[in-house]
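cron nightly-structures :: item 1 of 1
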Amino acid sequence: MVARDLGPVFGVAFQLSGDASLTFDTAATSGAFGADGKVLHVAKGSSARFGLTRPAPTAAPVDLTASRTLATFTFQAAGPVDSRPTLDRVSVRRVDGSFVPVSVASGRLVIP
């Protein structure tokens, strides 16, 4: 998961879903929200949920203007895959609680 052009933010949350032939094993953060950032991630079945926030509203926000990797995922495929994983329930918040408008792009996953 890569983010860019969002400016200074307090938190990011999303769900990554694949088709039934994918099983997510792990979700890991890149450390983009700092060593004191709070992380919640659950990888189960064909989806993974992920959230990152700063430790408190008084903490400095994270600048996501430049392209930064937020999370990586590992998965297993039950066989050949040709699908488009989707990002759902994407929310990005500023320190003041306002939401940041987000557009989402995804690619095609092909495993012969």
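cron nightly-structures :: done
The first strand starts at residue 2 and ends at 3.
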